[in-house]
Write a structure and sequence with these properties.
The protein is mainly α. Helices cover about 70% and strands about 5% of the residues. It contains 2 helices and 2 strands. It has a two-stranded antiparallel sheet with strand order 1-2. Strand 1 (about 30) and strand 2 form a beta hairpin. The longest helix has 24 residues, at about 1-25.
Length: about 55
Amino acid sequence: MNTLYKSVQHMRELQRQFVIRRLLEMGIHEYEGREIQELDYDDLKMILALARLKN
């Protein structure tokens, strides 16, 4: 069970890093005064969706 948990956590971190790269490519470095690297995956997905809607 521990291996499965670690695998899921690793995958979630990879997804988080992917979204961060996309936001940086779009020129977004912070959101509401916080660096995007500080935010969790769910917040990052929302920011990316909003940014895509604006473009």
